[in-house]
Amino acid sequence: MPINIPQYLPATERLKEEKIFVMEEERSKSQNIRPLNILIFNLMPEKEKTELQLLRLLGNTPLQVNVTFLNTATHESKNVSKSHLETFYSTFHEIKKDRYDGMIITGAPIELFEFDEVDFWEEHKEILDWAQEHVTSTMHICWGAQAALYHYYGIGKYPLETKCSGIFDHEVYDSTVKLIRGFDDIYPAPHSRNTSISTEAVKNHPDIELLSESDEAGAFLMISKDERHVLVTGHLEYDADTLALEYERDVARGLNPELPKHYFPEDDPTKKPRNTWRSHTHLLFSNWLNYYVYQETPYDWVDKGENHSLTSSCL
User: Which residues does the annotation list for site: Important for substrate specificity (predicted)?
Assistant: First the structure.
């Protein structure tokens, strides 16, 4: 089934080249289908790259998906044109009365700031609180996961001596959990962050289940016990060359970065890295959309005071 995206979004042509079934919103209005409505709160600086990465994954399932992009009103994005944001993005004020079947909150390059030092933190907290009543399931990625762990569960982050960057192996703890159904016992995934969280704090929290971790990179996949929140501390959505581009950027800035671990062939940055995590990325997004969004969301969102009416579990 197709992914429905705003007309003229730059990612459209690239998705079509990759044979992702794309339907622009004008055509989708003629379809007598109840699609899933997914909100993407995109906090990454290079928004168009992140749009493509996430749309590629949402468009590779049997479910029809409508996508809305959300941007902060209290922070000015510097790496994307104002016209792009005005054309393809909404602010929280514009969508706060709506309901969404799922939401994705991306990472952001602000980990070294304390949460209350982030200029849009109050807005972010408002969105997290709003999601409790207006979104069936939310996937939080990297800084987004750290922010959710802090806001919902009181688990903070701490700075690392050196950046956690590279491709790391992760162990699956319980393969019967729907989110990781079909995963190999050990699988690779990218990380790119300057802070981390306490694995022990996650394990000891009564409202969170740790599903997968790495000996080198720590806790990776978590889910809340009520299954409303999926937390991913790394970047499964990354392309094969994303870590290389980040490394080259930091070299150009004179930051003297370490090579991403287990990434470049023979640790040679002149050699082209390969994507070894793609299949598990697609599986994670497919499982999330199927088991935690599609099978849990109501067919019709109906406001009844503070609650919504679960009129149907099937679409």
Answer: 192
